[in-house]
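ESCALATION

Customer reports they have been waiting on this structure for their group meeting. Please prioritize. Original submission:
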Amino acid sequence: MVLVSGFAFAQQAQVKPQAEKAAATYNRKAMVGNEVLGSITAPANPYVNNKSTGFELGYQIGNTYYDLQTNGSLCSRIVNFDDNTVGATWTFGSTAPSFAERGTGYNYLNAASDWRAIPGAREEATVRTGWPSIVKVGTSAELVFSHQGTTNTVHVLRRATKGAATWDQDADIALSGLWPRAAVSGNTVHVITTGNPDAAPTAGLTSPLYYHRSTDGGATWSITDMIIPALDSSLNYGFSADGYSIDASGNTVAILVTDDYNPTFLLKSTDGGDTWTRTNIIDPGLGKYSTVAAGSISDVNGDAVADTISNSDASGAVIIDGSGVVHAFFGLMRYLDDDPAADANTSFFPGTNGLAYWRDNNPTQIDTITGALDIDGSGVLLDDYTAQENLALYYQSLSTWPSVGIDASGTLYLAYSAVMETLNDGMDPFQFYRQIYIMKSSDGGNNWDEPYHIPTQFQFGEYIFASINRNITNNVIHIVCQRDGAPGLNVRGDEDAAGDNEILYFQIPTSLPENLSVADIQVNNVVGVYPNPAVTDATVTINAGTSAEATLQVIDITGKTVILRNQNVTAGYNAVNLDVQNLSAGMYSVNVTIGKEVYTQKLIKK
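Update from on-call: job pushed to the front of the queue and completed.
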């Protein structure tokens, strides 16, 4: 880890940094949502209505072709109620490239543990919105805040009865800004938004961060469009889209601002949002910095030579515990601005690894608690990484998009997505998949359990943007995420062909049972598949350590088992022939279970 001036990093987990690679162009653009994208589409997934059989392995509750669920930090996408019902949201869009019907995707899990049918349209009646943030008020009310990109204002869906057939309110409200984030304490609702970065500056800020507050459950707003003094132009040029998160508990409100060249910091209020204090978590040492200003370079020590700096990757999460302590999480990233020309490109290092943890009762220490893992134990992370094209272009680190919840005992639960060393899409050049892990701390963040990989029906998929419920109850963690068959996005970055992305729901016990451990992701020197791609037949090789009964499954991209066979294997080399001629063309996961261990390989059927 590179030391950042004024702050010490403690390596709490055995996270191996990626070997240094050349910097990549950091040209991330915040997507307002009104952009007309390239007219590239892929065929619809014919299995879109098929669902996995178990919540613990992923259950499809929605879909979207619009695949950018955040520009940085996640919003609140899932809430649970005391009676075990759940509401989940996502940005929905089905018609590339215009996505004129884009809006809030929503689904509801009732008390009988039944999800509704996959919705085919947004929740809003007529207004085009994006980036919904869902919160609950009281025991039953639901509010969803999204943004209306044409007027640069907030749109709200509001109803007093969760899961009801219609919304009591479906309208723009008098709150300025885009990309809303919301938090609730009692009947008080706190919302933060940012101004349109393409509009003229406001109060000297290219894109201000606004604070809004309602004390009556969102019916009326006593504070609107407030620029908190610590967020004014004396310290800031402006703020990035989705580069912030918010939480509230009692009278304590916390806002985490994650940035690249400017400080990553915490705003905290202990009087319900009336007054605020600012604490810098990471200060890169550049002062008030604009990458697009003429003459600017990332020169920390004043020698007129650009320096590589360390900061967050603009994805973060924040939560307040029962003692009022604020816990913050963010991906780590390194940046370089060595071109003094106005509006010139800057650079970032996509091979940066590590998810950081900080709390305000120990403000001088940042712990790297996890990251992308050296799954094969070789001592080198991502052994096969040879080119930047091996990493899908999200502008985030190898471990990113943290989401955090807490239970009544104060146990913290952290979900995040990380690059998987042993899983890639097999293309040329190949790209590593990202999948989801959970960690927990039962002692207020002093120690963290080992990461647990969330098992899936289909190993070879991109599972990203995982959001967990803020309040963990009934010993259950609720998770919603987006799954794609290929790494990368259509809307930004790689600009892949627009295809169907599944919105999945997972229900994981807080005990994080042993069979979820990362130890179950085995290196594929035990199981092999040839020929690959296969046309009519494929041979699965199993190099077993002892004689045993093995279970062999071939699973399609929807999580459906299409071949299931019990097979006795002997110690040493075994070969099992599979007839695959009746399988549809596409990608499959071949899972071999021996005892408690699961070994996986990919099969491509031509």
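Sent to customer with the following note: The domain at 527-605 is CATH 2.60.40.1930 (Immunoglobulin-like).
Escalation resolved.
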